Amino acid sequence: MSSAKKGHLSQLSLGGLLITLGIIYGDIGTSPLYVMKAIIGGAAINADIILGGVSCVFWTLTLQTTVKYVIITLNADNNGEGGIFALYALVRRTKVKWLIIPAIIGGSALLADGIITPPISVSSAIEGLRTYYPSINTVPIVIGILFVLFFIQQFGTSIVGKFFAPMMLIWFGMLGILGGIQVFDNFEVFKALNPYYAFHLLKLHPEGFYILGAVFLCTTGAEALYSDMGHCGRKNIRVSWIFVKSMLVLNYFGQAAYLLRFEGKTLVELGGPNGNPFYLIMADWFQPIGITIATLAAVIASQALISGSFTLINEAMRLNFWPKVTIKYPTELKGQMYIPSVNWLLFLGCALIVIHFEESTNMEAAYGLAIVLCMIMTTILLNFYMIMKRVKWYFIAPIITIYGIIEFSFFFANIKKFSHGGYVTIIIALLLITIMFTWFRAKTISKSYTKFVKINDYKKVLAELSTDLTIPKYATHLVYLTNSSRTDEIEEKVMYSILQKRPKRADIYWFIHVNILNEPYKTEYKVTEILHDDIIRVDFNLGFREPTKINIMFREVVKNMVQNKEVDVTSRYASLSKNNILGDFKFVLSEKFLSNDSDMIWHEKLIMNTYFLIKKLSLSEEKAFGLDSSSVKIEKFPMVVNPPESICMKRID
Question: Is the Cβ–Cβ distance between 304 and 27 less than 8 Å?
């Protein structure tokens, strides 16, 4: 990322604060729709549970969201970018190989959370209609809203995005005003700021510990604060969080103040079958307005999760955690992308969640278990980040210990949800973990069995081949993509393709290597002339959030080299050369398949077979690299893993 870009991200401005409100607080900002309702459940309202629950909410927002994420974790930025994969890209420099495990688990859990957040947010908002229509079936309405939301992703969200900031400002203002009105009638609720009430609930009440599973819902959007740091900047997040937290706390305490007036009653008695404290604190005349604003806020929360999922998958692809898929850029806005396959898989998952659980109350059981796993994984990576930054151990130890205790407590409290719906998000997370691990491990196995040769050993023969008129010319410029990070080496299969499979005569041989960097935004290249006017290598250094458009990038490189008189790309055919006709460029890509001669142990065989199955469903290499299919030749090569020993045979007459 350029210094100008980083400078922009670090600036504190009113516009930046508004954009931050619109982009990153949707998930955590819509939590008041269901947190207090989940804490009480179907039980009678009890002062100990209300005060203890709202005390737990306040201290969770303070310790988990404010201290861990806003104050500590936002410091772990990768050139202005945040999120668990950005954090992993930083800490993998420590060369601790097993850190790939928390990165994959955390990323998968965050994606699984992205499937449950839109249904629970939109359902909680729409269920407010039951105040007027008690028997209304909200399932088709919720699915309809989600379909429209996912459908418009292909057109980009730049226009809709301008609506997000003022809408979320209205939303948080409404939260604060509604809560403030109730608190004004009962200031005693503020005694819940004393952590004693949280401790009292957890220690003495038989259900106290498991109420933590509901309390945790108030901080599920904390990971989004970190993931979207690149869009808003650290300073804007920290300053805007003061306002957001104040409004959230006012609303939670307002709901608590209201409920304390009805001790002994149930939510059903107060508001019917779907009694929700969030809507109960509204005046009757305001409820239609409140439902509308809540629905719009829920849609914005869903949009943030969808955009975050696109970014996460894009990063996973660059880090070799995910198969290559089509990425589209519907607008010129940097960082905005649309991934059709992920978009519709997310919609399918959301629709199935709505159909399966029907009510937001039922979804609460599925919510939280996956995201607490993500938070634990972030804590593990954060530990190594602080070690890498040479933070003193007496600072690291208490921080990691405290958050280890807090997050594992939330984890065990959420375990109770497993059989009531938590299994859904865990199954989704396990499926994503399997895909990511299989893809990464298969790439590692493939790389370990790739043979490289020294280019110097082939310079002479390539130079002679280039001028051998007895062999028909294959292309004026022949381009190979190589995985070799060393400029003096090339895959053996590339030389086999040029010299043996079918001798390919070309005037100039180009070798292109794409190096994905640990930082998010960078587009650099380096040209190495291996043999003058015969062999040229180009190394692209791209940030892990940059699109891989090799066709366009390579064209720019050649154009620049021609301007600098480093290469002549005019056709070498006499009739074309005298008319200054440019020579043709031909790309050759190798596509591997698993050889029957491979001798692998069972788990390697399972991984490789799964990898090639997924590969068939993923994007082709030429599309993944942004190449023009009309100028690409695909060659299939057998991948032989652990080739068998030579067979001894006896010749007989």
Answer: yes
Which amino acid, 430?
L
Q: CA 202 to CA 221: how far, in whole Å?
A: 23
Four-residue CA torsion sign, 166, 172, 175, 181: negative
pLDDT, position 639: 63
What would the pLDDT profile of 115-144 be if each residue is shown by its tens digit?
888 888 888 888 888 877 788 888 999 999
- Rounded to 10 deg, the angle between the 422-448 and 602-617 helix axes is 100
Report helix, strand or coil for 570.
strand
Co-location of 409 and 512 in the same domain:
no
Do residues 117 and 33 touch, judged by C-beta distance below 8 A? no
What integer pLDDT is reported at residue 248 of this predicted model? 95
C-beta of residue 211 within 8 angstroms of C-beta of residue 39: yes
Look up tokens 């893993």; give the residue: 641
Say if 616 falls within a structural domain.
Answer: yes
Indicate the average pLDDT of the chain. 83
Angle, helix 340-357 to helix 287-318, in steps of 10 degrees: 130
Residue type, 129: L
Amino acid in position 501: K
Q: Which structural domain range is residue 313 located in? A: 3-443
Query: 404 with 456, same domain?
Result: no
Q: Report yes or no: 425 and 352 within 8 Å, Cβ to Cβ.
A: no
- Is-contact 635 591, C-beta < 8 A? yes
Condensed to tens digits (0 to 9), the pLDDT of residues 24-40 reads: 888 888 899 889 988 88
More confident residue, 635 or 197: 197
**pLDDT value at residue 645:** 58
Alpha-carbon torsion, ordered 490, 491, 497, 501, to 10 deg: 130
Of 385, 419, 443, the residue that ends a domain is 443
Q: Is the pLDDT of residue 3 over 60?
A: no
Q: What is the pLDDT of residues 254-271, one digit of tens each?
A: 999 999 998 888 888 887
Q: How far is CA 640 from CA 148, 423, 450, 497, in A?
A: 48, 39, 9, 16
pLDDT of residue 143: 93
Let me know the angle formed at the C-alpha of 361 by 191 and 216, rounded to the nearest 5 degrees: 45
Q: What is the rounded average pLDDT of the residues 58-71?
A: 93
Residue 533 zone, left/alpha/beta (φ > 0; ψ -120 to 50; rest): left
Which residues, 6+ apart, have CB-to-CB distance to 572 below 8 Å?
Answer: 476, 507, 583
Burial 414-453 (b: 16+ CB within 10 A, else e): bebbeeebbebbbebbbebbebbbbbbbbeebbeeeeebb
Q: Are residues 470 and 385 in the same domain?
A: no
